[in-house]
Write a structure and sequence with these properties.
Pfam families: MazE_antitoxin, PhoU. Residues 9-54 form the SpoVT-AbrB domain. This is Phosphate uptake regulator PhoU. With 333 residues, this protein is of the alpha+beta class. It has 10 helices and 8 strands. It folds into 3 domains: 8-48; 56-127, Translation Initiation Factor IF3, CATH 3.30.110; 129-329, Phosphate transport system protein phou homolog 2, domain 2 (Methane Monooxygenase Hydroxylase, Chain G, domain 1). The protein starts with 7 loop residues before the first strand and ends with a helix. The protein has a 4-stranded mixed beta sheet with strand order 5-6-8-7, with helices on one face. A two-stranded antiparallel sheet has the order 1-2. It is flat and about 85 Å long. Helix 4 (132-156) packs antiparallel against helix 5 (159-188). It has helices spanning 21-26, 66-79, 93-104, 132-156, 159-188, 190-196, 200-227, 236-261, 265-293, 298-329, and strands spanning 8-10, 14-16, 35-40, 43-48, 56-60, 83-87, 109-114, 118-123.
């Protein structure tokens, strides 16, 4: 229910407006309490000001184990809890090992305290030190290098390089969790957006792009896994075709990301449209490679068809980033 208040002037120059009593009661605001104001465009956000801004959350892990327990810890992390208490009647040794594994896979987390029935995890990073721009930029560099190295591993039959690509996927996942955590923090609190120096709309754009980059990294990992199934060199024409398709797909992602980070709306729109139009050329390029694969052994052709599909999908994700860049560059209503 929307409540309205009339702005009044006191002392000849000070504008005042009353706060709804129900809201004040629910949020512990009373006479003498301090509140904080955060301007954003034509809006003004008001929040209670408290001494401790760190949030605590408790989760009963019960019989959770393995991937389910890891996912539970990650969910609490992304949700924005700074201190996470994992509780159970008795936490088993395997559960403790899994919790430490989950903690090591997330940026900034450290086990603070362990007892028979509780493990307390704390985020040691200061939110003001986080940068969603830097996290997305780092994701871009890693995802594109993974895609390039995965194709190289396939062409050169380099098993060590393929396994290195697979390991690097963890780095992208960690950064994706950081971006998600930052984004959700800006949705909950205008203070978080102010500390970042980035509007919540731009945070949404960066989070959308990060999701696409995470998918590109997944497909690079898939190509690396597929490359481990080959023990004989590919025909030169197939190598050249795959190398060319990768170059085109990577270019779409690069141009789209450049457009996303541009401040000028005209240049950003031009580059974003260029990236979107390039996706159509990649579709025809992929079909021409499929024609080449028909002359190969059916099992090899099937595996290479999956590689072509992953490169095409990576270009599609670049096209999605370009769409986000266009929305970011559009005039604000």
């Amino acid at each position: 229910m929307v409540e309205t208040r009339k702005v009044q002037v006191t002392g000849g120059s000070t504008y005042t407006v009353s706060i709804p009593k129900d809201w004040a009661t629910d949020n512990g605001v009373s006479a003498g309490s301090e509140v904080a104001f955060y301007p954003e465009g034509d809006s003004l956000f008001l929040t209670p000001r408290t001494g401790d801004e760190r949030t605590e959350g408790t989760l009963d892990i019960g019989e959770l184990a393995g991937d389910e327990l890891i996912r539970a810890v990650m969910t609490m992390y992304v949700s924005g809890f700074d201190i996470i208490s994992l509780e159970s009647a008795r936490i088993a040794t395997d559960q403790r090992r899994t919790i430490r594994q989950a903690t090591q896979s997330l940026v900034g987390l450290e086990v603070l305290e362990e007892t028979r029935d509780t493990v307390v995890i704390r985020d040691l990073l200061d939110s003001s030190e986080l940068s969603i721009n830097n996290a997305v930029t780092r994701m871009r560099l890693i995802a594109l290098s993974m895609l390039e190295d995965a194709v190289t591993a396939l062409i050169d039959l380099d098993e060590d390089l393929a396994r290195d690509v697979i390991q690097r996927d963890d780095d992208v996942d960690r950064l994706w969790m950081v971006v998600s955590r930052i984004f959700r923090a800006t949705l909950r609190s205008p203070r978080a957006a102010e500390e970042l120096g980035v509007s919540r709309e731009v945070c949404f754009d960066y989070q959308s792009a990060a999701r696409q980059l995470e998918r590109v990294a997944d497909h690079a990992t898939k190509i690396a896994h597929l490359s481990l199934n080959f023990d004989e060199p590919l025909p030169e024409e197939v190598k050249d075709a795959l190398d060319g398709l990768h170059a085109d797909a990577a270019n779409v992602i690069d141009v789209a990301m450049d457009a996303l980070f541009l401040d000028g709306s005209d240049e950003a729109t031009r580059e974003a449209n260029e990236a979107r139009e390039s996706v159509q050329d990649i579709d025809s390029h992929a079909r021409s490679i499929d024609e080449l694969l028909r002359d190969l052994d059916p099992s090899r052709a099937q595996l290479l068809g999956l590689v072509v599909d992953s490169l095409s999908r990576s270009a599609d994700y670049g096209g999605n980033i370009a769409e986000t860049a266009l929305q970011k560059a559009a005039p604000t209503p």
